[in-house]
């Protein structure tokens, strides 16, 4: 509602002071030389408030990117199952454009930041850190961000703007709508061949816990994070069943164990705590998870494997399954992959398909004798 007051200035002139107040909006005031101008301005502001435009516009002019990030960290990240990606990447944005008003964040500015993310070097370890892995007197290795990593940086701030627009009404639009993402590579697929697999398992067998951890990853196609979050109440040794409650796509998944993997986990269970809520792979501290990374890296080096990471065990398992004839639906059920990801493993089995087709052709040509039992079953 608007209120207009006539006032006399020190020089004797008259002005009309107008103030607009409406619930849920900041008060607006201004002065005009005529009542007509004051009334016209008041009607315009009231209409904008009713439509919500004034509020959003004023908030975006008043709020900074740093304020939006701080509120997002405090209110939104705790709702997420795993907010580590946001906690790691939002500080970069806060440092770069934290003092910029939300209304001043344009697609052009974000495109400039995208190129900076791509071009600037960064380090994964700091020599000044208390727990640094950088040898004394040496400079930390510098890296460049991959296109996929740059896109993840863009995604986290984009979601901040989405929440600022939809939930807080701090912004009228999301400036990321006008920013294109970088084209990502199709991703690597590193698979262990038989000789490499034997060499790696020979090295991991020297550490029973690591050996069990690796065998479960290799025989169930699970992620390291899923194994680390696995608790004893999610394990049924009698049935050979694991239930991964916390997965990357938030969909629980069941895995079945057989042979050596089941035997190793059964042996590992002999020293498990009574509390079934405890992790299957417990760290040195009561709350900490098992630190597999260092031991696995040493085993990879000892096995003389080149360019092999723990996640490649999942790639290897998927490839073995595809080569064994697993369908896309089966692969999705086993590993929790999406269709697009699964297809690359199916393509890797093309060489095996060639051999299968050769056997089929030979049979039709009469070069191979028919399998009577198989023929009878088919008929």
Examine the secondary-structure arrangement and name the CATH architecture of the largest domain: Orthogonal Bundle
Low-confidence runs (pLDDT<50, min 5 residues)? 371-379
User: Structural class of the helix and strand makeup?
Assistant: mainly alpha
What is the CATH homology-level superfamily of the largest domain? Intergrase catalytic core
Number of helices: 16
Number of domains: 4
Topology, element by element:
Layout: E1 2-8, E2 14-20, E3 28-32, H1 35-51, H2 53-62, H3 65-75, H4 84-97, H5 107-119, E4 121-123, E5 142-144, H6 147-166, H7 194-204, H8 208-220, H9 224-229, E6 235-236, E7 241-244, E8 253-256, H10 259-268, H11 293-302, H12 312-323, H13 328-335, H14 339-348, H15 350-364, H16 372-378
Antiparallel strand pairs: 1-2, 2-3, 4-5, 6-7, 7-8
Helix pairs in contact: 3-4, 4-6, 5-6, 8-10, 8-12, 12-14, 13-14
Task: Explain how this protein is built.
The chain has 4 domains: about 1-50; about 65-125 and about 140-180, DNA polymerase, domain 1; about 195-350, Intergrase catalytic core (hpI Integrase, Chain A), CATH 1.10.443.10; about 355-379, no CATH class. It has 16 helices and 8 strands. The chain has helices spanning about 35-50, 55-60, 65-75, 85-95, 105-120, 145-165, 195-205, 210-220, 225-230, 260-270, 295-300, 310-325, 330-335, 340-350, 350-365, 370-379, and strands at about 1-10, 15-20, 30, 120-125, 140-145, 235, 240-245, 255. The chain has a 3-stranded antiparallel sheet with strand order 1-2-3, covered by helices on one side. Strand 6 (about 235) and strand 7 form a beta hairpin. The longest helix is centred in the middle third of the chain and has 20 residues, at about 145-165. Mean pLDDT is about 80; it is low at about 370-379.
